[in-house]
Amino acid sequence: MNKIIPFNKPYLSGREILYISEVLESGKTSGDGKFTKACHSFFEKKYSIRKSLLTTSCTDALEMAAILLNISSGDEVIMPSYTFVSTANAFALRGARIIFVDSVTNHPNVCPHQIEMAITARTKAIVVVHYAGIACKMDEILELAGKYGIPVVEDAAQAVDSFYKGRPLGSLGDFGTFSFHETKNIISGEGGMLCVNGEEHIARAEIIRDKGTNRSAFFRGEVDKYGWVDIGSSYLPSEISAAFLYAQLEAMDLIQNRRRSIWNRYFNNLANNISQFGASLPVVPEWSSNNAHIFYIICASLKQRTHLIASLKDHGVSSAFHYLSLHKSSYFHEEYNGPDLPNSDRYSDCLLRLPLYYEMSNEQCDLVSQLVISALSEFY
Ligand SMILES: *Cc1c(COP(=O)(O)O)cnc(C)c1O
């Protein structure tokens, strides 16, 4: 019996506990202290983000974006069906009609042409998801946004430290949202960030994040008292989370380089060995960098994927499928009246994610690759 290879194992630099202790000793454990500010300026400087605001999750950052865009009942919001529930939920909570569109044929990312087809007079936002940290076709999408005057939200939950034609993801749309959930490249247990890229939204974003109060402006001495000035909620994380996150940000290059090395190893191991079984490798278009968030293969069928998962499991390896098309979800399917979304359905049935984490050894990567190839050849 081989040693168990988990699907994911969170990386810790060792400094998380030091910084958390520092916060505990300082007595100031609520939000927006020294570590929160350090995280904000890290992102603003390194990734050209106009204003970074840590949040308690990417879900919350998406909810903030929906509030900032004044999304209300009857507004339409266009997004891919192949995404996480939160992408849609944040806008559904404000009463929006979610207009799901399809992914492109060779990648789970949304198709710009399908977005354009779905635009109506009621469209209030376009939400794109950079799946696996790979950039959507942002020139086309931003051009559409400009042509029709519709704001763009980048769900960059998986896209930390990734780029479109050299420009940082999360900094390109009106808003960008990141996740630091345990399963992402950079983590703080639960955590997220809103990138506010338009000057005009910054003041209100701070208010919405802080229970609808102008407390941030008060602490900067810009007003002499603070109170209820708008709607909002409690979206700002504690300093304990920010201290955890800051330790991870310091290790960014180390983490990303190791993940990329494993990703490339999988790619090379499998490059000439899976297409004869009808399976295919991930595509990284020339406009995108690769932050190695996910290594996936696309199986020939649901049956082949089911066989592969079971076979890997028999050998102690955990692998995982990913999203199920949201237009077919139990919550939404009765409301959905758009066209079939065959690419989204194909990724729902056929995409399989292989283990990928910082501590994974080259030998483990080679073993999983071998197991994938032999499982495919058995099934074929
Ligand atoms: C992880 C993820 C989210 C949710 O992030 P949380 O921080 O857990 O709220 C949203 N969208 C996408 C695409 C994700 O991968």
Task: List all distinct small molecules, including ions and cofactors, that are bound in this structure.
Answer: pyridoxal-5'-phosphate
Which structural class best describes the helix and strand composition?
A: alpha/beta
Strand residue content: 5-15%
What is the multimeric organization of the chains shown?
A: single chain
* Shape descriptor: globular
Contiguous runs where pLDDT drops below 50 for at least 5 residues: none
User: Termini distance?
Assistant: 25 Å
Give the ordered list of helices and strands: HHEHEHEEEHEHEEEEEHHHHEHHEH
Query: What value does the average pLDDT take?
Result: 97
Number of strands: 13
Strand order of the largest sheet: 1-11-10-7-6-2-3
Helix content: 25-40%
Helix tally?
A: 13
Describe the sheet with the most strands: 7 strands, mixed
From the alpha-carbon coordinates, what is the Rg to the nearest angstrom?
21 Å
Task: Provide the fold topology.
Elements: H1 16-26, H2 34-46, E1 51-55, H3 58-68, E2 76-80, H4 85-92, E3 97-101, E4 103-104, E5 107-110, H5 112-118, E6 123-129, H6 138-148, E7 152-155, E8 163-164, E9 167-168, E10 175-179, E11 192-196, H7 202-209, H8 215-219, H9 239-250, H10 252-270, E12 295-298, H11 302-314, H12 342-350, E13 351-354, H13 362-379
Parallel strand pairs: 2-3, 2-6, 6-7, 7-10
Antiparallel strand pairs: 1-11, 4-5, 8-9, 10-11, 12-13
Helix pairs in contact: 1-9, 2-9, 3-4, 3-7, 10-13, 11-13
